[in-house]
TrEMBL record:
Residues 35-54, 120-152 are annotated as: Disordered. This is Uncharacterized protein. Its main location: mitochondrion. Belongs to the TIM16/PAM16 family. Gene3D superfamilies: DnaJ domain. It comes from Ramazzottius varieornatus (Water bear). It comes from the Eukaryota. The gene is RvY_05288-1.
Amino acid sequence: MVIGPGKYLAQLIVMGGQIVGRAFAKALREEIQKSQAAAASRSGRGSADTSRAAAVSSRLGMSVQEAKQILNLPIQESRLTPEEIQAKYEHLFKVNDKAQGGSFYLQSKVVRAKERLEEELKMAAENPPKNHRQTGRSAASTEAGSSDDRSR
């Protein structure tokens, strides 16, 4: 039986596809691990908090930084208030109203940014940062120390 060149070509294409598929899957796994490690080192939080933040970002389709940019909030500022977010949201939502010549796309981005920042506030309320608790203790010990000085 004679095997034609078409069969060799088909085998070559299948093998090449498998090799490329494996390489792509491996590269994707490595990139996910690296991005999770980078996010954990940037935020200083544990891996559980990082994975939850990544899940929220994935579900809502934007990062906290992008949401702050959309709502024109200071990116470096870590303390956000619900009132500040709501005020920016209401202004940008009205400005981008389709009836006033705005863009529905931009309006939806404003809504998603508000949702993302509200989710971040909820996560922060559930897991307060460690450094805030420590500063509270040091302030209490400083006050106690100053009251001891007064009694002498």
